[in-house]
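Might I ask for a little of your time on a matter of protein folding? Here, with my thanks, is the record as I have it:
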Amino acid sequence: VLYTARCLEFVTAEGQKKGAEKCKELGIDAMVVIGGDGSFKGARALANLGIPCIGIPGTIDNDIACSEYTIGYDTAMNTAVEMIDKLRDTTQSHDRCSVVEVMGRNAGYIALNVGIATGALAILIPERPYDLDHDIISRMNQTQKTGKKHFIVIVAEGVGHAQELANEIQARTGIDSRATVLGHVQRGGSPTLRDRVTASQMGYHAVNLLEKGIYNRVVAVSADKIVDYDISVALSMHKTIDTMMLDVANTISI
């Protein structure tokens, strides 16, 4: 929507100086930078060169450590759930196993939540190694004893190889297995209510900070409240997968 993209030149000191000079030339008083850690590093560089900046976490992967929630995450998950619900009709009618790849290069948040929401047999995420026999094949065998003949396996993009996994499952079980890569449909479309409201709250908070002369901060969600951190502090934080969610996924998988 903003027609912005990564700029390799801006990684250099010369590029950052050029960017700051262009902001001053255009009369830009301050910037609200929406993105991830890379964008925040760029915002910090601009702030150090005299362009006040506030960062807002926007990524469907929800992998920005300083914030419990990032703009775009809920929309991406709801899109994936809608697609998988549609896919399940064919999977069920043809007694198939559908291996569905969702986005998340280095983070399994989308895969984990979508997998729970759609009743996936198995969920494969970058943060946790998996064993094909234990985590998929044996679970399929156990589930077949209940009379169920169709299965959904969710794979995060960072784990990848959805087609190879589908081929291996079919070779070992004899069950017709198909791979579906949802891809960039997860990155577009109309935002959900949660994304619209959260984005509005974050934008409001960012502008309030700038009006008070406060900058070089990142707006975030903590305990369901809108807060802000120094950019350097925000960049030093780390985020991990909730192990309870993993237990939920393993316990209620169907």
